[in-house]
Amino acid sequence: MNKRTFVSLAFCLAGAFSLYGQEENQNNYGVEEANTKFTLQNGILGGKTNYDYLSLKDHEDVSGVPLGGIGVGNVNFAPSGKFTRIGINNIHTPIKRSEYSFFSLWTRKGNDKEAIRLVRDNATLYGMKGVEHTQYKGLFPTAELSYEGNDLKVAPVIRAYSGLVPHNVKDSSLPVVWFEVDLISQEDMEVSLAFSWEDFIGMFKDPESLEGFDNGQLLSEGRANLNNGENWPLREKAKTYVEPYQSENLKGLIQYAADSLQPRKLTFQNYVNQVVIAVEGEKNISYLPTYHADDDAWEQFRLNGEFTSSLVKSVLTEQAQSPAASVLAVKTQLKAGRKKTIRFMLAWYAPELHIDAAIASIGSYWPCGADYNKYYHNYFSNMESMLRYATSNRARIARQTAEWQKPVLDSSLPDWYKFKLINSGYVIYTNMVLTKGGDVMVNEGAMGGFAGTMDQRLSSHPFYQKFFTQLDRSEMDIFADSMDPEGYILHFIGHYYVGMGTVGGRVPTEKGWMLDNASGWIIQLVKDYEQTGDIEYLKGHLTDIKRVMAFLYSRAPKGSSIPVGPTTYDDFVHPPLYSYYAGVWLTTLKAYEAIGKAVGDERIVKQSQERFTASQKEAIAKLWNGRFFAYGCEPDGSKRLDNVLFTGQLAGQFLSRYCGWGDVYPMDIVKASIVSQCKISLSKSTDYYANKVWDINLNRGIDNKGSQCWPFYLESYTALAGMQAGFYEDAMDIMKHIQLVHLRKGWTWTQNLWNPSDITYMTAPVTWFSTDVLAGAGINIPRKELRLAPIVTGDKAINIPLFYPNFWGVVVADPQKKSITLKITKKYGKERISFNKVISEPAGLSASEKREIEIKEFVVEEGKTLDLSQYWDRIVDNRLEAPVLPEANKHDFRYVTIN
């Protein structure tokens, strides 16, 4: 070990020890600051509800579908045709929008010429007007933009896409975007299509100096504020160049910095030093290597549809100069009624970073954890090799990306739901950090850079876990490896502007515990085991699990069996014995019991069962007030807050039933709680977008200013818990309105947790729980059990897709024929998966009333169909409730007395 490395490690250790013994919950990890970043925007709730979700008309363009890849940055292609939230350098604080990045169309018929920007706005830029109308079909990571209603002589359609291939990390982490532009004319026409791209190279945030940076732990001595890259200035713009680019069938321009970019402090930003814009398979190409806002360089294009610039190396942007951009144009002849497709490509590349620990300054990088490089560095040492691969595999990657969208689009579910489900996965591009070594952490959003957030991960993980189990496990493994010596799971495993842990390393975010971090880690681990059958993975963490459980047991105060301490709901003070965690604790015990059964440890099984019985009895006795679970009380049951209703009170119930571990509370209690939430707070909140903490005496929400709602938890812990209890219509209504709140303002692909605003918060993928809930579905591969009880609400056949780590399927239930089938549409891996038992837990019925059906062993193989029609009456038996929300005042409260 050299001296420099030794000193750096010493600082890491010193920082950790300085925090040891810090008072519980002393640090709220910046939540309060995050809540006050966005002033409560009065009047933004309520409004239009009748959208054509798959063809949004003249839609707001704050955000758009993110295009790019996992861990490599992204750009949003917005419904106006503009590029917004450009995050090729920084996904945490992307550039809001660009006026230099756009497509432009030139047409000529005889002497009649016209040049327009294919952007919806009222401006005239570079001598070209925009358009008045657009239609947008945005389904992450694809977008389609058309221009009907503009009286254009040529009808263009832009289809944009990048790769997201389930369980194929290589093809899903390429910084490559394709734009296929279809051109159709009703008469012979000369046409030119131009693609302009602004120079963003070197535009990243960097501290002005390293003074105060010492590689210490962030959760002490003000280091978190110092490392908050949101407050750092943009680095001075690098000098860049542009020159022609050609590679096999691609021709275009490459923008580049002469040297690799050297930040003062290495972060997980992308230090992109090369960008290519190119067109595939075209011959009549012209270029405008560089132009600025005050140039009239587009005049040639406006006149003739082409540029006459010389194709030599040119300076693109002088250091610290105003913005500049490059343009690529393709000129062609259109035949009447025939379609011409021009395919453009945008790609960027950051060179691999090599840290010389012997000379690197203290604080210039995190020396104790994961690397800062990109996953594509495992395969491509330069832009050239990456583009050759991307081009030759483009069609396959596009086809395999569409494969996971198609079952959703082909389903019987409403368009708003299809749109919401597919697009909720966007966070895997906008928030996930993925290194060359395969280490993963997910940026929380609006938290100064803190990432790998276990409490939010409990709701956000389904999309990653279903489609990229390898990446999901990476983050879970880092959490296990960085476990505190006291036995608790940390809140964070890294920081976007500092570094993150790796197995065998350290994290810069040690100390700081919350009860549901520990519980959430265990629950997700067991769910992974039951859905994959990977017993070795579970056993590999068995020692860790026992340490975590010992910690949780130790947090129960004398006279109580339920742990007490801080939780995810940390922006508002909650009582010690807390309705949210009481339920999550019961689910934790269910998970621990499942572990005991899996590894054959009867002591664990018995201990879990006995503690569950005691804790369930205590939770109900101390917190249930007859209509709902009170917000909380003291550990002895005193000072119960019956006047405060909380939307997180059924979190444990939802999680346990979702995982197939049964109800943690009696179903009549669950139903009464849902009715109370609908009547007391949800129905009194516009769009049902309710504060999570509601004071009944004041008849209003009392969350901290800026915290209008926690929509993603409302979706899982109220809406989906309600759906399990039979409140199907109310659940769908809540989910629909959560989307509408964001959709109306153009925030579909940048949803915030606290109130509607321009933040990509990590928990948007919570919607990926819902396919299983709608189908009453789940799997336990080790026990060869398939759970199935689809919600059927009318006389029409339903079609619901299911996605699990190792296979996909489609459930079709036809009430007129009383037929129900499960068709296997995709199988991953060679492991044998089979089912010999079907368990039905119909919505609205207690899990104790489940039906167990022995079947002939069904082996999961692609294309096979399991026909369960003979068991229709036992499987499809939902006890759905009348909707409460539309006329909540006409519904009575439900009272449940516990003896």
Helix-strand blueprint:
Elements: H1 3-19, H2 31-37, E1 56-57, E2 65-69, E3 73-77, E4 83-87, E5 95-98, E6 102-109, E7 112-120, E8 124-125, E9 128-131, E10 135-139, E11 142-146, E12 154-161, H3 169-172, E13 176-185, E14 189-198, H4 223-226, E15 240-247, E16 250-257, E17 274-280, E18 285-291, H5 299-304, E19 314-317, E20 325-334, E21 339-349, H6 383-392, H7 394-409, H8 415-423, H9 427-430, E22 432-434, E23 440-442, E24 450-451, H10 454-460, H11 462-467, H12 469-481, E25 494-495, E26 499-500, H13 515-532, H14 535-540, H15 542-554, E27 577-578, H16 579-599, H17 602-623, E28 632-633, E29 644-646, H18 651-659, H19 667-680, E30 693-695, E31 700-701, H20 711-724, H21 728-743, H22 770-775, E32 778-780, E33 785-787, E34 798-803, E35 807-814, E36 819-827, E37 834-840, E38 851-859, E39 865-867, H23 872-875
Parallel strand pairs: 7-9, 33-37
Antiparallel strand pairs: 1-10, 2-3, 3-4, 4-5, 6-7, 6-14, 8-9, 10-11, 11-12, 12-13, 13-21, 14-20, 15-16, 15-19, 16-17, 17-21, 18-20, 22-23, 24-25, 25-26, 27-28, 29-30, 30-31, 32-33, 34-35, 35-36, 36-39, 37-38
Helix pairs in contact: 10-13, 13-15, 13-16, 16-17, 16-18, 18-20, 20-21
Domain Glycosyl-hydrolase family 116 N-terminal: 64-396
GO molecular function: beta-glucosidase activity
Domain Glycosyl-hydrolase family 116 catalytic region: 516-678
